[in-house]
Amino acid sequence: MLELRNVSKTYRSIPAVEDVSFLLKEGEVLGYLGPNGSGKSTTVKMVIGMIRPTKGEVLFDGREIHHDLAQYRSQLGYVPEEAQVYTHLSGLEYLQLIGRLRGMREGPLEDKARTLLQLLSLEAAQYSPMSGYSKGMKQRVLIAAALLHDPRLLVFDEPLSGLDAVTSRLFKDLLVVLAEEGKAILYISHVMEVVERVCDRVIVLAKGKVVADAAPRELTQLMELPTLESVFAQLVKQTDTMTVARDVVDTMKVLHD
Ligand code: ADP
Ligand code: MG
Fold first, then answer.
1. Pairing of strands 76-79, 153-157
2. Which part of the chain is the ABC transporter domain (predicted)?
């Protein structure tokens, strides 16, 4: 369904993403992991057609997405990393706006928007301006907005940031059910939780390059490490956070003259 072929993106001669290739099929959940600054969001921006790759191409059903971006976007649901929403609108008004922009009919749109808001525990807040919503509430509106037009491809950039425990559990189950429904899901995260449970395949990115592409279980076996978390730390050569924590405290304790 979605294919990236040797995709690279360079910002003013600094590479952010280098030579990424993968195929995401229907019914598949692909985890796209890496530490902060490794190029995840840059990849996402190319996948949703917001920016063009410096090299390589993004294909949907075998066609380059920029040939007919509007048609492609009608098949795409995207939840951005930052909950940037029109805060003067209520949750319901926001979903109605998004639905109208996607050409949905008023009646079915309103029914669907209300039901999604209710399922995502936003019924009581549906008429209040989103300026008063918590980060998690805004995130849930964005998830509803991404699902509204029943897209075939879903892209979630760090979807769990700001979600409470109950909503994250619901979200994980939602991923499983969406995959069962045949949706293709690209799941971006910098943390391991969830990924082991819901992803069929995991791509690990470090400094813009793919350092691993395998099933979660294969990764742990391959590296002879007990958990995916330790594989991740090994692959991206994360700094020893305990050492950093001690250094921070040591620095804090330095007395001023
Ligand atoms: P991630 O989402 O994995 O945290 P990003 O894709 O946001 O990483 O960033 C990858 C690298 O590209 C970082 O070094 C970041 O500073 C750089 N970068 C991202 N966006 C821009 C931009 N618009 N201009 C210049 N550099 C950018
Ligand atoms: Mg990011």
1. parallel
2. 2-232
CB of 41 within 6 A of ligand 1: the answer is: yes
Task: For the chain, give the percent of residues with pLDDT over 90.
Answer: 48
Residue 214 host element (H or E): strand 209-214
Mutate which of 42, 44, 232, 236 for ligand 1? The one with the most ligand atoms within 8 Å of its CB, which is 42
Query: Looking at residue 193, what is its pLDDT?
Result: 66
Ligand 1 pocket test: which of 8, 11, 51, 209 has the largest number of ligand atoms within 8 Å of its C-beta? Answer: 11
Burial track 217-226 (b if 16+ CB lie within 10 A, e otherwise): eebbeebebe
- Give the separation between CA 173 and CA 170, rounded to whole angstroms: 5
Give the start-to-end residue ranges of the domains of the chain: 2-75+151-253, 87-150
Question: In this structure, are strands 55-60 and 63-64 parallel, antiparallel, or unpaired?
Answer: antiparallel
Q: Which CATH class is domain 2-75+151-253?
A: alpha beta
The 3-class secondary structure across 173-210, one letter per residue, is HHHHHHHHCCCEEEEEECCCCCHHHHCCEEEEEECCEE
**Is the predicted pLDDT of residue 161 greater than 90, yes or no?**
no
Backbone angles phi, psi at 74, to 5 degrees: -70, -15
Tokens read off for 172: 């994980």
Strands (E), 2-160: 2-11, 14-24, 29-33, 55-60, 63-64, 76-79, 153-157
Ligand 1: atom nearest CA of 34 is: 3
User: Among 40, 18, 2, 14, which Cα is nearest to 195's?
Assistant: 40
Q: How far apart are CA 82 and CA 41, in angstroms?
A: 11
pLDDT at residue number 196: 75
